[in-house]
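Q&A log
Question type: sequence-to-structure
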Amino acid sequence: MDGSSQGEWVIIDTWPADNRFMATERTSDGLLARFRACGVGRFFSSGFLIFWLCGWAVGEAFALWLLGNGAVALMSGEPLSSGRAPLQPGPALLIGAFVLFWLALWTVGGVAAIAEVLRLLWGEDRLLVHEGKLRLERRRGPFRFAREFPRDVMARILVVPRGGALALETTRERNVLTTLGTRTEREEAARAFADELALSDSAPASATLPRGWEEVVTPEGDRALVPEGRLRRNQALVLGFLSFLFAAVAAVLLRDAWGAPALLPSVVLAAAGAIGLGWGTAWLARGRMEWRIANGRLQLRRRFGGTVRDVFEAERLELAVTTDSDGDEWCSLYAVRGPTEISPVPVGYRAGAERKRIAAAMNDPTIPLRLGTWLSRVGSIPLTDRSTNAAREQELVMLREQLAASGPLGRFLTRLLDAAQKRSKQV
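Response status: OK
Response body:
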């Protein structure tokens, strides 16, 4: 493996025959830690998933039968079943396209459920430090995979506060190593491997752009930050194929609509889908939103072909954390117009006339934090980090003061919050 890579998955053929559980230990190959699925709750979860997979298999078989028999009936001109009229090409293709799309999603869901059952019942992860590399081996029943991380791309190993997963932060992203075992085992392994690899406990400085972003030079000769081009090209290929499929269905339906006017609504829907998907393909292939970096400012531009239009200009950056209705934390990086606010509480963590979101991630601040650090360093743009515990506590204090100053109801709610906080601390 190239030492500059971020780690690649490969299928491995060997697995030691001795499957007895062991904690972190020193072996002849290096420092080894093994993690297995544990807890009684996993049997209930896997039982529900197995029950669901029975229904999934029935739906999968029916969809495959419908597509196969429909294709044969369409090509032969015979009816799908006795006593029925032969299939009309236009409606048949439209229904077939929908069933094919549904089948793709259904298959992905089933494969994910099967993988989760294997993880819950027969999952095992192994971490091995060997020759300066961290090797992750995963076993899911009969399936075994391996991935290696060179030392020069590692930044730190940590147990993620939310969820307790053992993760490795590289120079570009955060990789979940394992969620198996107990939290105590993962914490002990994190300390042991950090000492073995001489990794720091603190968050690393961002020396490179995180995954999903790249720096380019625009045709005007300016430095700009844009989403990764490879990802946009793949998205354009997918949308292009779907646009062609909708256009083909619309053409067939239009041919049949001359003798059956009732098909005209279907023609309009298929044509609208083809036009919308075609525009999306053109935008991904020829257009983009880019952040121009110059003179301590960020300038958002919309580029399509040779046309460029300025959209927004910012003087500083903000990193903020919000919680959604499901309790998930979102870490977002914003470009903000105007001077730094005196109050630690911003006007709002929503994009609008004075702030534009650059990047966001759920339950993982790695990419927004490193992107903000990189932009601040290369563009000399001030960065305000409101995601730290100290900053968030200060914001809560300011919010309480604003609530208490709002009137009698606000003061009453503040007292209730203070009482609830005292009870939680006593517990």
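Response note: The first strand starts at residue 9 and ends at 11.
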